[in-house]
Amino acid sequence: MGLDDRQIERYQRHLLLKEIGGPGQQKLSDAKVLLIGVGGLGHPVAQYLVAAGIGTLGLVDDDVVSLSNLQRQTLFSETDIGHSKVAVATKALNRLNPHVNIVAHERRVDADNIAGLIADYNVVVDGSDNFATRFIINDACYEHRKILISGAVGRFDGQVSCFKAWLSDAEGTPLPCYRSLVPEAPETQEDCATTGIIGALTGVIGSLMAVEVIKEITGAGDSMAGRLLIYDGLSGAMRTVKLNWDPKNPNNGKQD
Question: What is the per-residue pLDDT across 40-60, written as a single tens digit (0 to 9) for each?
């Protein structure tokens, strides 16, 4: 099905890009993306994907809105405090683009439900805030061959990568998975509730994550698979480094 006149006007700036154009916009319209975590990273991811015309966006979170969220989670207001994040975000995103199908999954990801959650989606976006959940998502995406876009933030720093660990590079070396970056959870884990975070940083990193999702769906540019983008907000510096596959942590992340 092609784009109608209103869609052509709505997505005109995408259509002008030779890397996207009409075929790419149609791919976006047909795509199904699952966003795990409707927090600081999840907000810009969701807003820009919905604005871009993603066909279906699934939202996964079991939390409720709190006052401290409002410093960086821009879909929420004080009247939403105490209400389900997924429910509030769904209403806001429907106002942004009523033509996107928003699917609410009001639950916490665990090893028992992850396979069912990702089954119907083309791309999975990890906006979670703890290593246990990231490992669960990573392993399931490898096993079920789902493209994984992952982001993380802390204080003034952030990072973004893409994981397609069932594939190999041009030399035949397996691409890394998240466990090649973080083999195991550190003994001491910090989060923004204990160390703080500049709110705008989540907008920067979440927006970059949304760009990578759009690239993977449309085939535009170079995939971030096998690379890690690192942003230092205090210095204003950004760099990309190569991620190496760790043979001690094969693609599925399980130790030998």
Answer: 999 999 999 999 999 999 999
Backbone angles phi, psi at 91, to 5 degrees: -65, -45
Q: What's the pLDDT at 249? A: 72
The domains of the chain, with CATH numbers, are 31-242 (3.40.50.720)
* 203-212 residues labelled b (16+ CB within 10 A) or e (exposed): bbbbbbbbbb
Strand partners, 58: 34, 103
Active site residues: 192
Cα distances (Å, whole numbers) of residue 251 to 101, 149, 172? 32, 16, 13
Distance of CA 127 to the CA centre of its chain: 5
pLDDT of amino acid 254: 54
Q: Are strands 227-232 and 56-60 parallel, antiparallel or unpaired?
A: unpaired
Distance, CA of 34 to CA of 128 (rounded, Å): 12
User: Is the full-model pTM beyond 0.85?
Assistant: yes
Q: What is the pLDDT of residue 256?
A: 45
Strand partners of residue 149: 125, 162
Q: What's the length of the chain?
A: 256
Do residues 94 and 102 make contact, with C-beta atoms less than 8 angstroms apart? yes
